[in-house]
Known about the structure:
This protein has 16 helices and 33 strands. It is α+β, with helices and mostly antiparallel strands.
Amino acid sequence: MESRNLGIARALAWERTPDGIELQCVTEGLAAARVALSAVAPRVVRVRVTAGPLGAAKKFSYVIGRPDTGPWSVDAAANRVTLRTAHLVVEVSLDPWQITYRTTDGRLLTHEVPDDANFAGQRFGPRPGFQVESGPNDPARRVLGVVETLLLDPEDHFYGSGERFTRLDLVGRTVRIWNRNSYGARSELAYKNLPLVVGSRGYGIFVDVPTAVTFHLGSASNRAYTVEAAGEELDYYLIAGTPKEIVSAYTELTGRPAVPPEWAFGLWASTCFVQFTTASVLEIARRLRAEGIPCDVFHLDSFWQRALMWCDFEWDSARIPDPKHLLAELHREGFHNCLWINPYVSLQSALYREGATHGYFLRRPDGTVYHPVVWSQRTERGMGLCAIVDFTNPAAAAWYRGKLEAQLAIGADSFKPDFAEEIPDDAVFANGLTGAEMHNPYPLLYQKEVFDATRAHASRVVAWSRSAAPGVQRYPGHWSGDPECTFLDLANTLRGGLAAAMSGLAYWSHDIGGFWGDPSPDLFVRWAQAGFLSGLSRYHGATAREPWRFGDEALRIFRLYARLRSRLVPYLVAYGWQASKDCGRWSWSSPTTRPATRSIFSTASGASCSSLPWCAPTAGSRRICRAGDGPTGGAGPCTRARRRSVARSRCASYRSTSERTASSCSGPSAATWASARPIRSRSKRSSRPRPRSPCTATAATSISRAGDGAARSRSRRARRRPRSSCACTTVPRLPRSPPTDERFHGWTRRAWIGARRVGLSTVGSRSSGRGRDESRFAETGRFAEAPPVRRGGQATAAMIEPPAAAIATTSHGGSRQNISSANATRARPKSPWLLTALLHTGS
């Protein structure tokens, strides 16, 4: 028995289908094949290739969305069939077989390459078709995989494929989509493998198969690249457009991200991977408050359960005798909480006996319960063999969800769904599929159960997951796993975040300080700066990571950036609502990562961070509002008045949580513009639209010290004008009075106090110094520790000289906080989102 490639030779016949065409084909060796082309959306076509004379039924799909296809047509000519959509043209040559993809204006995107060989006849890549086991009289005895080989231009670049810790550009590499516990951030192994690649030529490819997918992106030849899916089908979507349009179309197919609650955007503290007690947890929580560090979530890691029993959902009564009391005390201190979990059940626990009795675990081919090795015997502190919960069994999923609901009932707020990468290939699932077919989709099923169980107790929830599959962006957020405490792994982690952002993961984070090892104070500070400017922020590690353990200077800088994070939260929430509607417009790991992506994709204005999606700069200094943003829904000059109005209406309404709705960040309607009233200009009398929509936030008034008069307040408010030349630096407005529920929103009052004084419009841009009392904090009570910032003072001395791989500058109030090397002191980003490190990504 030998393995060989059978390329599709020609199409024998074709027929129209309700959504496209289907072709009956034959390969070399006369094996039969079916190819179906479908119009999915104006920018998306689907190509499904299966072996045999009949199209095989689809066993599993990541796609849940059904976008509007728009107008499409099928044209037939001699030896050619053409499928046209509003943005794509797919030409099929019947004999010889070849598929070509173009834009509607005739520009070539790519085409199949059946003849990638040298003059000696040696092939560099397989022909589009099948990898099979062949016998003397049976040319396709068993199909091993289905292959597509497409044109690769020397100037092509590809990005994405999940969270990759290596070089950002995938060209020249072989990428295998197969989830693994990588135990770090230094290899091709990845926790989050997503079969989506985003190209620089104007198209991307998403492969909708549950089995392993391998991209040979120029690793064998610089003329062609290969997409190979294990099993009997290759089902891929070719998406035309800019990177933001590609990612947006991908999330339209696999699901938009949910919006986490406001408290999830604050700092997450962690007990870390060490044993803890009730007293030690409360001591750390109260010390965070005493140090004036804004923090909203306290994560209880593995040791809330008994050692060697993970994960049986039983609290360790020796160290935490009253878990309900502990969670209540954390709530009383203003913290939400998070509990670590995983889908493995120790054979030593009573929970295993319960699950095995009812058939809730994966099975071996012989029907017995599978007991795989899922823990590293070196790193996981001696954990033994486990069983794996089978989430394709509805009874098992309900059983597992009941264990989660029991923790929610005693006061848990969220969970950290760890692991789920080590599914054995030969395991048998309740739905009849094997481990080879369910290995990659398993994290999606796991995180869905956790998210749905939590959402039954709250309208907006968050998780903290490690593994991924297409569609997990519906269940935010995700973190980067277990990097070592080195500057190298910090850089690798941020590269992983860039790749994750280009793969549709909306809320990405990482462990501040790294996981394995003991970070130095300078590394901890640099990692904290990157962490506070990521989509979500948490300190965590295999050893303790409380910021006061790294010295007074590290504590001071950590506190500074924690407070900066607090002031950014309202804006992050606003963009969260936008991502839930169009993830491609604003990929959300990117408050940290977008600066690097801008240099890669100059055409992706929405994804690049240089401007907000509703106001695009033109060639000159004048800017034009996009269609739908003007008073009548049309385009028009982008005046400062219009930009302010649009920014207000796009802001998430900053009322109490119970009043906040998803409609609060929708664009301004014609009625909103019509109801606008003029306000007085600082320099001259003019009319500026001020929306009165109940779903939009109103302008925040200045906050004066006790004894300040109304005239002084009005004067200061009049001087407090946006300095932006584009909507990208026009800030949303907050309510006239601060929220009062400090326990529920630890950061909310701070954000309200600081947003208009030292808020987003001043961060990362040149301070005007005209009447801005940016150092004033009128907060009273528990969160009143913020010290005044001297106006015009010298830059705060850097704690360390940063490595060449990371340069980050920002301004805080009127005094510049320099955390970069001396030659980068004067670097000033043009956008408030260019707050963070401009990282050398190695791409």
